[in-house]
Amino acid sequence: MRGGVNAAEFERLVREYSPMVRSLIYHITRSPDDVDDIAQDVFLRAFQAMPTFRGGSFRAFLGRIARNRCYDLLRQRRASSASPFLALAADDWPSAERSPEETVVAREAVAEVIRVVGQLSQVDREILLLRHVHEFTYDEIAAVLGMRSGAVRTRISRARQKVVAALERGQRDASGSSQLG
Fold it and tell me: N or C, where is the chain less crowded by C-beta within 10 Å?
């Protein structure tokens, strides 16, 4: 028994949180080859740290361990600081109701959002990933990133504003150039 959690209970937690941990690892490292190794290390470290876990969100606890392990790996490799936000695949979207033209427009929209979000700072990309993809609460994001909840709210708001402004600029530029002909 570790920190009030036995091995069987911890295995259940691993099964429950593995998709979130693996996704976070992939989106930070962008290396599918590293996901399994880092995820295994994250859960091992979490199990070892259970006696020090003081409650709260276990998901945030795991997210913080995963994030730290990813940055340890990236520092070791001296990787660039740019990491894409999401590998959203429009191919995964149900397309039975869409015409081919609608599918192309949707793919272009996703590509534009990914491009714009990719221009945000690393922290802003992570905050948006945790909030909008993994649906973390503000308090959980604050725990993962070591920030105050109010600072997380502010960063999310500002990051959203930057994304919207960049997308609007892109639409204005596209409509202006299409009217030149």
Answer: C
CATH code for the domain in which residue 105 is found = 1.10.10.10
In a domain, 1, yes or no: no
Contacts of 116-124 with C-beta under 8 Å, sequence gap 24+, read: 116/162, 116/163, 116/166, 116/167, 116/170, 117/85, 117/86, 117/163, 118/82, 118/84, 118/85, 119/166, 120/85, 120/159, 120/162, 120/163, 122/81, 122/82, 122/83, 123/155, 124/155, 124/158, 124/159, 124/162
Mean pLDDT per 10-residue section of the chain, whose length is 181 residues: 68 92 89 91 91 86 92 70 43 57 76 83 88 89 91 94 89 63 41
Q: Are residues 64 and 98 in the same domain?
A: no
Structural domain harbouring 164: 90-178
pTM exceeding 0.70 = no
